[in-house]
Design brief:
Chain lengths: 455, 242
């Protein structure tokens, strides 16, 4: 008897008990679909986190921050200069492993950004260099970034994020059209600034889809008195990382210094210190030599006082990997337990089915079926059920993921990977084979005389 | 050389420490083309004898040569192949597979011997013609009468051109009229040169065969051979003397 005949016989048997076979396969269907859906969810999470990682500058970006002077250097505290613009020039000139540098000088605390009667809830007001665009992965959608000339002459110009625009000029969803405020004047900390550029809206893929979907929906009526709904929930600008980025206001470093930090007006002490220096290394593989180089340069400019520290995204990246691995492992274990339960279901049904068919097996043996013929027949049946279950499970998982996307729109969109499908299907086949072995052995070992007499 | 040569065969079962001799030092020859019946009351050992002759079971002692092959030491796989190629079975309860149609039931032995699909169909149609059921090929066994089902079983037993056909109480589950028709069919098949062994407890059924072997307590109690008419009287006298 060849394999084709065995498969035909097995298939006939399954067809003869359609409903029972369906119920039997259900365990596998659920196991496979949950395995695929789980991996799709994890993949979605992973995509979301990677998007966020790229949005905050990627792995190549390193921040240099102020740090308290180490205790053994406390006596030099009055010598410490902090991060200054000299460090930037020194790094640019002396650290070839560093491709880009840009300063960050934050505006004074509670700098109010207003336009007419409107104020922003919060704005990340930063004085920087034009290189910040590339370094912090910004894209100008309208207007332009300020340039070196703007910086040299300390002009009152700024480039804003869409979140700032939304709050000062009204957002697209409310106004009904996109406002491009280039050329308009806004007030930052009491100083008039001309908006010369606006970034694009930074958002996750999911958020983008949601927003595009919302455009097609009728607008909900505002109920009750007009109010701000606060930061929680689905705020403007989406997830935290993207919301931060959308609330940015960039102005030239010199403007920031002259207007807000130097000894002008009520401010009697000039503060030339930078809050952060951002670096981009030339090559992620040379991260450590680059950091060493940067440290050496800064030790010179800081008179060997280590009042700075490096912050990389390695931890963030590692956290992502760990979180993904954990989610994948726990989800995988649950899904595999589901598949095992499905396999036990198949084994159970196959055992019941051969008890029901002892006489048939006796007849088959009497007319010349060998033990291995019977073994193969039962094994093919159980494998076939599992394979059908596996295929149906793949189809189900597709539907399941669609439903998940609908039900959980704000999370990261689950993404089905071919690898997950292959693994789930292979595993279901394996489960079918393993579940069939015991019943098949039992059937093959039946004594033909006993089996023929069985009522 | 006979088709079947059974020499000093014993089949011993251990049942709760007790030894049961289902067959006791039994010897028997069956020639090719013979039509014989094996009779005996229940418990006489005739079923055990048929199982051993039919290669469903192996003897505890003694030898069996079937068509020139020694059987007593054959492996299970070899036994299955011999059953498939050299032996046909007809059972009291027909033993057709209810999920397969008539044609598929008849094809079954050829599936295990690896005959191609087309040849299978041709040969099963031929076998069904032999039992006059070619117009029922697509029916399910349950849609046929008892007599028809038994004829399908006979077609299945013949389809692989076996050396010998064993029929175990083939009329036991049929009314007398249908039973007679089945016996007539066996007689016809025998006249066409097939070797057939009927196993029965009913002397009336056994009467259709020229040669009758009576089994009692695992031994051949009496042999009657119509072809040796007259000799049986002598043999009976012998046993009477003994």
């Amino acid at each position: 008897m060849n394999l084709f005949n065995a498969i035909t016989v097995g298939f006939k048997e399954i067809w003869a008990h359609k409903f029972r076979s369906l119920l039997t396969a259900l365990g596998i269907i659920l196991g496979v679909s949950s395995l695929v859906a789980m991996s799709a969810t994890v993949k979605g999470m992973e995509n979301g986190m990677r998007e966020a990682l790229i949005a905050i500058g990627g792995l190549e970006k390193v921040r240099i921050e102020q740090q308290d002077i180490p205790s053994e250097q406390q006596h030099l505290a009055d010598q410490a200069v902090g991060l200054t613009v000299h460090d930037l020039y020194a790094l640019k000139a002396s650290a070839p492993l560093i491709r880009l540098v840009s300063p960050e000088m934050r505006g004074p605390r509670n700098t109010r950004v207003t336009k007419g009667g409107k104020t922003t809830e919060w704005a990340n007001v930063i004085g920087t260099w034009p290189t910040a665009i590339e370094l912090n992965q910004h894209t100008i959608e309208h207007g332009r970034m300020f340039n070196e000339i703007d910086d040299e002459s300390a002009r009152n110009v700024c480039v804003i994020g869409t979140n700032i625009r939304d709050q000062l000029f009204g957002d697209e969803e409310q106004v009904g059209r996109e406002i491009i405020p280039i050329g308009d004047t806004i007030s930052i900390g009491g100083e008039p600034f001309v908006v010369i550029g606006m970034f694009e809206r930074y958002e996750s893929e999911t958020e983008k889809k949601r927003r595009e979907y919302m455009k097609t929906q009728p607008k909900l009526e505002q109920t009750g008195p007009a109010r701000s709904r606060g930061w929680g929930g689905r705020g403007r600008g989406g997830d935290f990382v993207f919301r931060m980025k959308n609330s940015t206001i960039y102005m030239p470093l010199n403007t920031m210094y002259l207007k807000f930090k130097s000894a002008v007006g009520t401010n009697s002490l000039p503060d030339p210190r930078l809050d952060v220096i951002n670096l981009r290394v030339t090559d992620i593989d040379a991260l450590e030599p680059a950091l060493q180089q940067a440290r050496n340069v800064l030790m010179h400019t800081h008179k060997a006082i280590e009042d700075f520290s490096f912050m990389t995204q390695e931890d963030w990246s590692k956290n992502i990997t760990t979180a993904i691995d954990n989610a994948r492992l726990s989800g995988g274990i649950i899904a595999i337990i589901g598949l095992l339960v499905g396999g036990i279901g198949i084994m159970n049904i196959m055992l019941a089915s051969i008890t029901e068919r002892i006489r048939e097996i006796g007849i088959r043996k009497a007319i010349g079926a060998s033990n291995s013929n019977i073994f193969v027949q039962i094994l093919v049946e159980s494998t076939f059920i599992a394979l059908l279950g596996g295929l149906a499970g793949l189809a189900t998982s597709y539907g399941l993921v669609k439903v998940m996307v609908m039900v959980l729109p704000e999370n990261n969109t689950p993404q089905i990977t071919p690898m997950a499908m292959v693994v789930a299907f292979a595993f279901s086949a394996l489960v079918g084979v393993v579940a069939g072995i015991l019943p098949a052995l039992k059937a093959a070992r039946l004594d033909p005389i006993q089996a023929l007499r069985y009522e | 050389m006979s088709l079947v040569e059974l020499r000093n065969v014993s089949k011993i079962y251990q049942l709760g420490g007790e030894e049961i001799r289902a067959l006791d030092d039994l010897s028997l020859d069956i020639e090719a083309g013979e039509f014989i019946s094996i009779i005996g009351p229940s418990g006489s050992g005739k079923s055990t004898l048929m199982h051993i002759l039919g290669c469903l079971d192996t003897p505890t002692q003694g030898t069996l040569r079937l068509d020139g092959t020694e059987i007593q030491n054959a492996s299970k796989r070899e036994l299955a192949r011999i059953r498939n190629e050299k032996i046909g079975f007809v059972f009291q309860f027909f033993n057709l597979l209810p999920k397969l149609n008539v044609m598929e039931n008849v094809e079954l032995p050829m599936i295990y011997s690896g005959v191609s699909g087309r040849e299978r169909r041709e040969r099963s149609m031929e076998a069904l013609k032999l039992v006059d059921l070619e117009n029922r090929a697509r029916h399910r066994p349950m849609q046929l009468s008892g007599g028809q089902q038994q004829r399908v079983a006979i077609a299945r037993a013949l389809v692989n051109r076996p050396k010998i056909v064993f029929a175990d109480e083939p009329t036991g589950n049929l009314d007398s009229h249908t039973g007679e028709a089945i016996l007539t069919l066996f007689r016809k098949l025998s006249q066409e040169g097939r070797t057939i062994a009927l196993v029965t407890h009913d002397p009336e059924i056994a009467a259709v065969t020229p040669r009758r072997i009576e089994i009692r307590d695992g031994k051949v109690a009496k042999q009657v051979d119509a072809r040796l008419a007259g000799l049986d009287r002598v043999r009976n006298a012998d046993s009477a003397l003994a």
